[in-house]
Structures are given as C-alpha cells and as structure tokens.
Design goal:
This protein has 400 residues and is of the alpha+beta class. It has 3 domains: 79 residues, Uridine Diphospho-n-acetylenolpyruvylglucosamine Reductase, domain 2, CATH 3.30.43.10; 164 residues, Uridine Diphospho-n-acetylenolpyruvylglucosamine Reductase, domain 3, CATH 3.30.465; 137 residues, UDP-N-acetylenolpyruvoylglucosamine reductase, C-terminal domain (Uridine Diphospho-n-acetylenolpyruvylglucosamine Reductase, domain 1). The chain is 20% helix and 26% strand. It has 10 helices and 24 strands. The strands form 8 sheets. Strands 6, 7, 8, 11, 12 and 15 form a 6-stranded antiparallel beta sheet that branches. A hairpin with a 2-residue loop joins strand 9 and strand 10. The protein is globular.
C-alpha cells in the first residue's frame, strides 16, 4: 500500500539531484502500480487555466533528476513512484522486449542490459533518474535517443481517468520532446508513465554495441567516426564504461562528494532553428549578423513547412558568451563574479566547473540561486548571439 508521511513535512531538496526545493504539504510513496493508480484517481487533471497557473494538486516524482522546485515547496501532494522491476520476453532469435517499471533507476536498467548482451541502451549509461521519466524528455546522449528503442508505454491518463497504452508513433518523439512533455503544463502532466517497453537486439558471444554515432565517443573508443556503421561498433561493456568516464569528466554522473554533479543535468536544450534564419541572427551587443565561423551546427531534419532545421550547441553559445566553466563563482569568469566580487549568488551556485550546460549547487544554494545563474547565462547568450535558450528541467513554483 501507499504510505503517507507524518510528522515533519518532507522537503523536495532531499529527493532531487539539484538538492533544492522546499517542503510538500503531503507525500505519498507508491510501492506498486496499483498504489500509484489509486492516488492518481484522487487527482484528476485540473482545468487548463488551473494548470497554466501552476495550480495542480499533484506532483509526480521519480528520480528527481530533471526537477527544480521553488524554495517555498509544493502546496499539494507529491506522489513518489517507488516501484521497480524488469522483465524480458524474446520477440525472435535476434530481439528481446524489455518491460521496465516506472520507478526503476534508469542506469540500473542500462547496466542490466549490458550484462546480458542486449544492445541499444549502452550509450545512455550514467543518466540519472527513473525509467518513467525517460520517454517524457526523449532522453538522449552520445548520438542515441531512447525513442530508438521504445515500443510503447503504459500510462495513466488523468484526463480520461483510465489506463492507456501509447505506441512509439503515438508518442510523437522529437529532440528532447514527446507527446508526454507537450501535454505537461507547468509541471502538471496529463499522462503519468507506469511502465516502458523497449525492444533491444540480442547477440550471442561477445556482444558489440549499436553503431557509435557520436564523434567524441567514437574517438575515445579508437573507432573511425567517419567509417561505415558496421565498423563503428565496440564491445558493449567498453562502450558503457567509456560513456561513464566521459560523463564523469563533465560532472554528469552523480557523486555526493562532487558539487559539480548537484544539478538537474543539462539546464538548457540545444536550440533548433530554421537554417534560413542563421544568416539573419543579430547579436544585439555586437551588431553583427549571423553566427561566428566555426560555431557548431548539426542537421536537425525539417519543420512542418519543409524548411531545413539546424541544431546549435547550447554549451558552445554559453561559453562563447562569456559564461565559461565556473560562471557565477568569485574565481570564475569575470562576467559572473557580481558587483561585489562574491559571485552572482554569493558563490552558492554556478555553472559547473567541468561543463557549461549544468547549473550547479555548490553546497547550500537555494532554487533562486540556481535560477539567478541560469538567467544570467541565458541573458548573455541572447545579448551576444540573439538566440534564446530554453530550460530542460521541469520548474515547479518558479520561472526562469
């Protein structure tokens, strides 16, 4: 059965990777899917106006890795999805379907598949959070996206008040986006994922990874990033280990002793713009049109009007706008030291000293401290390049 907290209210800061967030008025721990559904029935989807105003009575919590909650906390009930489990079912000689409970730790899922020679998730190693959150963001890293392996999800539809099964096609995945995310308003979800079904490839003997698409990862494995896909494979365990090493070097593998990992992960998504707009971008502070030569840009498909899209690097834009590693610290880049030299938020929050995409808690930061640094970085990118960055984490009770 679900358990409700009693006594001292639980604080979100103790359950989120950024380690910020005030108390919740109520807290329910769902130890099974039925427990979760019982609580979800008690919290039907609010009206559109209430959702837009941030007035949902329910906050769904998995691993807390993509969540930034205000210092005032949450006035409703937190539903913590604490049920886990993995089951595997052969589809044919080469493929296996994996069904994973929403509360299962995602990296434990990846490790489970690698140990059993199942191919498809290895490049997604080290990503914090729970499996139920993975399809919402269409989590991706090192050239892979979870959309490449998801068959379907089971979810509770808070509008219809019923269980639904949504296929990969139904979920309408795109870069860091899905139907699940698009129907979430101010942290209020229409659909709450209960389980995820993934289709992976099974190999006998020494299993090799899926083709390594990301140049940095390929090079680190000694592979030719320009070679045909069949030649860009490496043993599964080696790929997983290398991904974990690369992520750790950027402060993207959770470590309680390393404040660079006290974050929501990447705070901003990489901006995607029509290719035709790039020459017309105007940097207000420089009065220069277009992006500088050498700015990373990658093909990103087409929009609904058939225009070619280009993905830019948010990390590159942030760094080149004067917000380098450690931005916000007294010893960091000059633009982030603040008027008194103590750092934008008194040194309590900053961009990671390892990677410019993460806004980090240096030990005793508040949610507002993190937002102060994020706002400053976003403002400088807009002033320097004319590009507005958008946050990746869900913001509860606060705005960027």
């Amino acid at each position: 059965m679900s358990t409700v907290n009693s006594g001292q209210p639980k604080r979100l800061r103790d359950y989120t990777t950024a380690r910020v967030g005030g108390p919740a008025a109520g807290w329910v721990v769902a130890h099974g899917e039925d427990d979760a559904v019982d609580e979800l029935r008690a919290h039907p989807l609010p009206s559109e106006s209430a959702r837009s105003a941030g007035q949902d009575t329910l906050l769904v919590l998995g691993g807390g890795s993509n969540l930034l909650v205000s210092d005032e906390g949450f006035s409703g009930t937190v539903l913590q999805l604490a049920f886990d489990g993995i089951s595997a079912e052969p589809v044919n000689d080469d493929e296996v379907d994996l069904t994973v409970a929403a509360g299962h730790h995602w990296d434990a899922v990846v490790a489970w598949t690698v140990e059993r020679g199942l191919v498809g998730l290895e490049a997604l190693s080290g990503i914090p959070g729970a499996a139920g959150a993975v399809p919402v963001q269409n989590v991706g890293a090192y050239g892979a996206e979870v959309a490449q392996t998801i068959v379907e999800i089971r979810a509770w539809d808070r509008e219809a008040q019923d269980l639904v099964v949504l296929s990969n096609q139904d979920l309408r995945f795109s870069y860091r986006d899905s139907l699940l995310k698009r129907t979430t308003v101010q942290g209020s979800p229409r659909y709450v994922v209960l389980s995820v079904r993934l289709r992976l490839t099974h190999q006998q003997g020494k299993a090799l990874s899926a083709p390594v698409r990301y140049a940095e990862l390929a090079r680190s494995l000694g592979l030719d990033a320009e070679a045909d896909g069949a030649f860009r494979r490496a043993p599964l365990a080696e790929v997983r280990q290398k991904v974990l090493q690369l992520r750790a070097g950027k402060g993207m593998v959770l470590d309680p002793e390393d404040h660079d990992t006290w974050s929501t992960g990447s705070f901003f998504t990489n901006p995607i713009l029509p290719e035709s707009e790039l020459p017309n971008l105007m940097a207000p502070s420089l009065s220069v049109a277009g992006l500088p030569e050498g700015a990373p840009r990658f093909p990103a498909g087409e929009n609904d009007r058939g225009e070619a899209l280009v993905k830019l690097s948010a990390a590159w834009l942030i760094d080149r706008a004067g917000c380098g590693k450690g931005f916000g610290l007294p010893e960091g880049p000059e633009a982030g030291r603040g008027a008194d030299g103590a750092g934008l938020a008194g040194g309590r929050a900053s961009l990671s000293t390892k990677h410019t995409l993460a806004v980090t808690n240096r030990g005793d930061a508040s949610a507002e401290d993190l937002l102060t640094v994020a706002r400053a970085a976003r403002h400088r990118v807009r002033e320097t390049f004319g590009v507005t960055l958008h946050p990746e984490p869900v913001l509860i009770g606060c705005r960027l």
